[in-house]
């Protein structure tokens, strides 16, 4: 169920160092989040699309990945134009669609899609191991990186554990429904997940100590210093700052 | 419970990020290397719990369980929830980078609050334990939706109706999380009390002696 569809590829973005990609994604998406103008946010959407092309992403997969966001956007397009105060753009019976509401919806749509595309192009294109490596390079505390790698390693195991427990319950004739018994079963199931996770944590910790673990993971991915990294980082930072300044001064 | 990208204003995003960083810093300081695997494992359970769907009438909702994560981890819930949300963003694209701080605060701050409010009540008596568990489950969701609404309202006063909708939509979730957390806590107290911080009959040797005692009584 959990797969990293974009993590391995052969494009310019995939060849960049993870730290550079994390920093560029941070800078560009912060600039896009600060943007308060519909036309300017179109510029960020353009950058995001260019990044997706540079990463040679499969557009169908990208659209599938954005599906939860589209549901959210659909919801706000239903709620906001009706609940916002302001100039009424058009009326349908008692329903009044206001101009500021629709403008805000459009702005949110463009901004959220562009920030998520930037995330997909720059962060989702690396494996979690590389993400940990990149976070370490930008001086995120070692414990945080450790937590990330360790939880990632065991998510699949715990998910398997959950499926096993659920299968066992179903074999005993459990049919989920809207009743206290079902909720109780799920509560015990979640409780059992906590118990097994905690016991496993103890075993894993002991096993790590036996193998001489001393608070550090070593990476096998070595990213050679590359002039492309510097160029890309400078380019994205300059583009972000330029767009923010442009919006502040001229808009 | 997530806020999507592009909704919140810059001051709200920045304050969310600052609170999240501060919470994570405190949390990381409280985790030592002997417990870090435990925290990572519980973060993984928190992630998997969001894939567990329970029925509500014709619809369904996924479990959140930030209440119980708070009870079990205290301030360490901040980094654990941060990691789970980051992984969710990478795998499923629920939110991106800039809103991550705000989403961490929405989930983790209530977790820490219920830890300090309800943990002392656990294990006193079976009834009190189930009530404290239920209150921490429902309370965590209530506080989460309150923080979410506050973030929306601070962004734009016109979001008020949306805030009311958000709170109303979360009422069934509160009830379900309350029930599930209540039962889950009593289950953990019975089966594996050492997972809950501050439980006296915690360590394994005690448990062994209790089991032996039980066997003797049966004989």
Jot down its keywords:
A: 251 residues, two-stranded antiparallel sheet, 10 helices, B: 219 residues, Arp2/3 complex 21 kDa subunit ARPC3, two-stranded antiparallel ribbon, 9 helices, globular
Structural write-up:
The complex is a heterodimer of chains A (251) and B (219). Chain A has 251 residues and is mainly α. Chain A has two domains: 12-126 and 224-250, no CATH class; 139-210. Chain A has ten helices and two strands; from the N terminus they run H-H-H-H-H-E-E-H-H-H-H-H. In chain A, strands 1-2 form a two-stranded antiparallel sheet. In chain A, strand 1 and strand 2 form a beta hairpin. In chain A, helix 7 (128-137) runs antiparallel to helix 8 (142-171). Chain A is flat, with a radius of gyration of 23 Å. The two termini of chain A are 45 Å apart. In chain A, 37% of the residues are buried. Chain B is mainly α and 219 residues long. Chain B has one domain (10-218): Arp2/3 complex 21 kDa subunit ARPC3 (Orthogonal Bundle). Chain B is built from nine helices and two strands, in the order H-H-E-E-H-H-H-H-H-H-H. Chain B has helices at 10-30, 36-49, 66-73, 77-92, 100-118, 126-155, 160-169, 171-191, 204-218, and strands spanning 53-56, 59-62. In chain B, strands 1-2 form a two-stranded antiparallel ribbon. In chain B, strand 1 and strand 2 (59-62) form a beta hairpin. In chain B, helix 3 crosses helix 6. Chain B starts with 9 loop residues before the first helix and ends with a helix. The model of chain B is unreliable at 215-219 (pLDDT under 50). At the A-B interface, helix 2, helix 5, helix 6, helix 8 and helix 9 of A face helix 1, helix 2, strand 1, helix 4 and helix 7 of B.
């Amino acid at each position: 169920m959990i797969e990293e569809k974009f993590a391995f590829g052969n494009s310019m973005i995939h060849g960049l160092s993870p730290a550079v990609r994390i920093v560029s994604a941070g800078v560009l998406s912060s600039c896009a989040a600060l943007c308060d103008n519909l036309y300017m946010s179109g510029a960020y959407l353009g950058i995001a699309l260019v990044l997706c092309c540079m990463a040679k992403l499969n557009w169908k997969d990208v659209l599938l990945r954005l599906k939860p966001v589209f549901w959210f956007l659909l919801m706000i397009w239903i709620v906001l134009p009706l609940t916002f105060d302001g100039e009424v753009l058009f009326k349908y019976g008692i329903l009044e669609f206001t101009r500021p509401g629709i403008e805000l919806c459009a702005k949110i749509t463009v901004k959220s899609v562009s920030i998520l595309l930037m995330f997909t192009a720059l962060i989702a294109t690396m494996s979690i191991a590389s993400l940990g490596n990149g976070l370490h390079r930008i001086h995120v505390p070692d414990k945080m990186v450790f937590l990330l790698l360790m939880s990632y390693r065991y998510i699949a195991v715990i998910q398997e554990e959950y499926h096993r427990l659920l299968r066992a319950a179903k074999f005993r004739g459990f049919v989920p429904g809207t009743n206290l018994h079902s909720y109780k079963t799920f509560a015990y199931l979640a409780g059992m997940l906590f118990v097994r996770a905690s016991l496993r944590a103890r075993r894993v910790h002991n096993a790590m100590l036996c193998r001489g673990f001393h608070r550090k993971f070593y990476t096998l991915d070595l990213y050679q210093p590359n002039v492309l990294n510097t160029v890309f980082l400078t380019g994205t930072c300059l583009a972000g700052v330029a767009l923010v300044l442009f919006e502040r001064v001229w808009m | 419970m997530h806020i999507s990208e592009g909704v919140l204003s810059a001051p709200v995003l920045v304050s969310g990020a600052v609170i999240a960083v501060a919470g994570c810093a405190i949390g990381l300081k409280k985790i030592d290397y002997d417990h870090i695997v435990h925290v990572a494992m519980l973060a993984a359970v928190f992630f998997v719990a969001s894939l567990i769907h329970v029925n509500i009438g014709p619809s369904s909702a996924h479990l959140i369980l930030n209440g119980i994560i708070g009870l079990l981890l205290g301030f360490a819930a901040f980094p654990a929830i941060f990691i789970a949300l980051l992984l969710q963003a990478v795998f499923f694209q629920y939110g991106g980078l800039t809103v991550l701080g705000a989403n961490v605060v929405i989930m983790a701050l209530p977790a820490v609050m219920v830890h300090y409010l309800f943990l002392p009540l656990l294990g006193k008596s079976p009834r009190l334990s189930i009530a404290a568990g239920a209150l921490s489950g429902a309370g965590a969701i209530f506080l989460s939706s309150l923080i979410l609404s506050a973030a929306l309202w601070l962004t734009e006063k016109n979001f008020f109706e949306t805030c009311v909708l958000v709170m109303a939509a979360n009422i069934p979730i509160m009830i379900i999380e309350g029930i599930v957390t209540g039962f889950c806590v009593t289950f953990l107290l019975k089966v594996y009390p050492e997972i809950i911080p501050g439980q006296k009959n915690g360590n394994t040797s005690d448990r062994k002696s209790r089991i032996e005692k039980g066997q003797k009584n049966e004989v």
